[in-house]
Amino acid sequence: MAQAFARKMANDGFDLVLAGRNTDELDAIRRDLLVRSPSCSVQCLFFDAMDMESHREMIDRLSPLPEVAACFVGSMGDEIAARCDAGALALILRSNFEGPANVLGIVAKRFEDRGSGTIVGISSVAGERGRKTNYIYGSAKAGFTAFLSGLRNQLQSAGVHVVTVLPGFVATKMTSHLSLPPALTAKPEAVASAIAKAIRKETNVIYVKPVWFVIMTIIKAIPESIFKKMSL
User: Fold this and answer.
1) Could you give the CA distance from residue 141 to residue 137 in angstroms, rounded to a whole number?
2) Where are the domains of the chain?
3) For a Cys staple, 10 with which of 28, 40, 166, 210, CB 3.0–4.6 Å?
4) What is the fold, at CATH topology level, of the domain defined by 67-227?
5) Residues 117-149: pLDDT tens digits?
6) Which of 135, 139, 94, 103 is nearest to 121 (CA)?
7) Are 6 and 16 in contact (CB under 8 A)?
């Protein structure tokens, strides 16, 4: 999703800063972007979402401060192991909530001081109601969704826009081992286009495939006495 979004933004004329742990992969993406969009500028920075003490230093290296900051960090983790293993639990919580919330919180303060900017956070429909198959991952995403909502309310008077993205199923490496229903599964390019549109129109919350709004509205409306007996 992040690569598709980078391609979309470069094609739309934005200069880019790519941040991630694998600097060799980042450089390969940078070179590909420059071939596709020769007029754009692309920088690469090392960034480890799990090392929260390093986040402020990484943001300090951004010059100039970008107009858009998009966080695509996340990991499904091992749900079964996380139920009884503190390390596996911490991995899911930090990669899906703590890390993204920390770095975007730092960005938010810089944008607020400047009086402009757009923050994009990739959350999940899994956070809209706890399900027995992925309630740890879902709880992390629920926390991140609430964080983005609060951030949006805090920053609206400062001229800073916050977008919450709820993609549903997306055909990526993270889901490659799953058998996903085609009608409910988005391509990364569709996610990128939906985010770019949300940035332009200052949309607050987007479901990449609108059918997910319908599905989650129904799921959230099911009484708890019934829901706890369902295999979801």
Assistant:
1) 6
2) 67-227
3) 40
4) Rossmann fold (3.40.50)
5) 999 999 999 999 999 999 999 999 999 999 999
6) 103
7) yes
